[in-house]
Amino acid sequence: MVFTNISMNNDNRDREVVVRKPTGVLQEATWVERNRMMQVYFPSLGQRMWLPHMLTEEGLVPVLEGGRYRDILDMACLQCEPDSEDYIRVHRTVYDRIEVEGEYDSLRSTRHFGGLVWYLVQQERIVGLVKDLVEKYLCSEGEALVELYLLCHPHCSLTSSTDSTPGKKLEAFCRHYSLGQLLAQLPTSRTLKQTQP
Are residues 63 and 75 in the same domain? Predict the structure, then answer.
């Protein structure tokens, strides 16, 4: 048996949902049970009762191979709470795939790009994204990414050796990670940025 507080003045996240086990013990509902009850009593427009097949571990693979990253993330945002296991699993899987494939443009200018950047910074895997930004002459974004990385990882050996003048952090990052081919592009990209209206 499941008991749910359905009074209208409560927020869904604060609602009490308890389950009586066959032994008679009452305990707080799991996330799956809680989400199911919220969907029964307070359905969200477009949200399904069960997780769509494309968000399951088996269903995610063919959709990822099709490169439909944005569709997957949009569906995860609609179907799952941001702190649910499925939401986190789907986002991590998609972000990992984008990083491996180097397809950062698939999320650029979408609401999901910030989450991708944050995930890569937290995982200390921004080298590919920095390369992508510099190759596309987006050096100011590359500089901001390196600054965020240094703020989140003050223990990094790069932190102590980095000059705080603008443009130097990106250059120091490229030197630290042996990205010599990108160093040649840095002055050109800065010049292009300055000449654009």
Answer: yes
